[in-house]
C-alpha cells in the first residue's frame, strides 16, 4: 500500500497488481502464490486464512533491476483488493488474475461491480483460459491479450490480416524482450538465448503494430521498464504507456520530455 500511495501521489495513471484467494476466500493483492520470497514464510496464500498471512519482509528485491532492493512502508500487511479500491476510488487498476480459480474470478468481478469500477478496471492473465473466464464472468470489464492471443496478433500483423480481424481485447501488455538481457549476466547467456531475445524484440517492438492498435482504441503498455533509455524507446515506438517499478524516474523522464 505504501508503494501504491507513493505512485498515486506522483500522478501515476494506473496501478498494476496481482490477485490470489485465501483459504477463507478473501481476495488479496499478491504476485506469488507462495509467500517465501515476499515474507520469508514458506506457505501458499490459498492454504491460509487472511488473518494468518505473515507480514512483508522489511527488504525486498526489485525483480526488474539487477542487484537492487527496496525498503519502506510501516504497514507490512498484505492488502485486500477492496483496501486498494477504497484507498484509490478514482485510480484505474490493472488486475492480473494469478490463478485459474472460478471463485477468485467471480469475487474480483463482484468487488469491481460493488465499487462501481468497471470503467476503471482491466483484467486478465497470460493464460487464455483465465481471460476467457474473465470475459464470460463480466464482459463489461476490459480484458488483456493472453499469451496465445499475442502470438495470434503477431501472426495476423505479419500476414497483413490484422486490419480485417475483430479484437475484443482493449489492452496489449507485453514485455520489452531486450530488458531480459540486461537482467542476466551476459556470460551466462547462450547464443540461442540471445537469438530468441533478439527475435522476440524484433517481432514485438514494432511501431506500425502499436500505431495500428492505438488507432483501433487498444492501449499498448510495455513492461517492466526502469531505465530512461527504455522509457524513450517505448514511447518512440508509440506505446500508450509503460509499467515501471520506479514511478519517480518515469515522472522525471516525462517532465523532461515535455519541456
From TrEMBL:
A Pfam family per the record: GDPD
Please indicate which superkingdom the organism of origin belongs to.
Eukaryota
GO:BP terms for this protein?
glycerophospholipid catabolic process; N-acylethanolamine metabolic process
Reaction(s) catalysed by this chain, per the record, are:
1-O-hexadecyl-sn-glycero-3-phosphocholine + H2O = 1-O-hexadecyl-sn-glycero-3-phosphate + choline + H(+); N,1-di-(9Z-octadecenoyl)-sn-glycero-3-phosphoethanolamine + H2O = N-(9Z-octadecenoyl) ethanolamine + 1-(9Z-octadecenoyl)-sn-glycero-3-phosphate + H(+); 1-O-(1Z-octadecenyl)-sn-glycero-3-phospho-N-hexadecanoyl-ethanolamine + H2O = 1-O-(1Z-octadecenyl)-sn-glycero-3-phosphate + N-hexadecanoylethanolamine + H(+); N-(5Z,8Z,11Z,14Z-eicosatetraenoyl)-1-(9Z-octadecenoyl)-sn-glycero-3-phosphoethanolamine + H2O = N-(5Z,8Z,11Z,14Z-eicosatetraenoyl)-ethanolamine + 1-(9Z-octadecenoyl)-sn-glycero-3-phosphate + H(+)
Localisation per UniProt entry: Membrane
- One cellular-component annotation, GO: endoplasmic reticulum membrane
Q: Where is the GP-PDE domain?
A: 1-254
Q: Which residues cross the membrane?
A: none
Q: Tell me the keywords, alphabetical order.
A: Hydrolase, Lipid metabolism, Membrane, Transmembrane, Transmembrane helix
Any single GO molecular-function term of the entry would be:
phosphoric diester hydrolase activity
Primary location: membrane
Similarity section: Belongs to the glycerophosphoryl diester phosphodiesterase family.
Q: What is this protein called?
A: GP-PDE domain-containing protein
- To which species is this protein native? Conger conger
Lineage, broadest ranks: Eukaryota, Metazoa, Chordata, Craniata, Vertebrata
Amino acid at each position: 500500500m505504501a508503494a501504491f500511495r507513493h505512485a498515486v501521489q506522483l500522478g501515476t495513471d494506473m496501478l498494476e497488481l496481482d490477485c490470489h484467494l485465501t483459504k477463507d476466500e478473501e481476495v488479496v493483492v499478491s504476485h506469488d502464490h507462495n509467500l517465501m520470497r515476499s515474507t520469508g514464510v514458506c506457505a501458499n496464500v490459498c492454504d491460509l486464512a487472511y488473518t494468518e498471512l505473515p507480514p512483508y519482509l522489511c527488504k525486498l528485491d526489485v525483480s526488474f533491476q539487477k542487484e537492487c532492493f527496496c525498503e519502506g512502508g510501516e504497514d507490512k500487511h498484505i492488502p485486500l483488493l477492496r483496501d486498494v479500491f477504497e484507498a484509490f476510488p478514482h485510480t484505474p487498476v490493472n488486475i492480473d488474475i494469478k490463478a485459474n480459480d472460478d471463485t477468485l474470478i467471480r469475487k474480483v468481478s463482484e468487488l469491481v461491480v460493488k465499487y462501481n469500477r468497471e470503467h476503471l478496471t482491466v483484467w486478465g492473465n497470460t493464460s487464455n483460459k483465465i481471460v476467457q473466464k474473465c470475459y464470460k464472468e463480466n464482459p463489461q470489464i476490459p480484458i488483456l491479450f493472453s499469451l496465445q492471443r499475442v502470438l495470434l496478433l503477431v501472426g495476423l500483423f505479419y500476414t497483413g490480416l490484422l486490419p480485417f480481424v475483430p479484437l475484443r481485447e482493449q489492452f496489449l501488455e507485453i514485455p520489452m524482450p531486450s530488458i531480459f538481457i540486461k537482467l542476466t549476466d551476459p556470460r551466462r547467456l547462450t547464443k540461442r538465448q540471445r537469438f530468441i531475445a533478439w527475435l522476440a524484440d524484433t517481432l514485438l517492438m514494432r511501431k506500425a503494430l502499436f500505431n495500428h492498435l492505438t488507432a483501433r482504441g487498444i492501449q499498448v503498455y510495455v513492461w517492466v521498464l526502469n531505465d530512461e533509455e527504455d522509457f524513450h524507446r517505448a514511447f518512440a515506438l508509440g506505446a500508450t504507456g509503460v509499467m515501471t517499478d520506479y514511478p519517480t524516474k518515469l515522472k522525471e523522464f516525462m517532465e523532461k520530455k515535455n519541456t
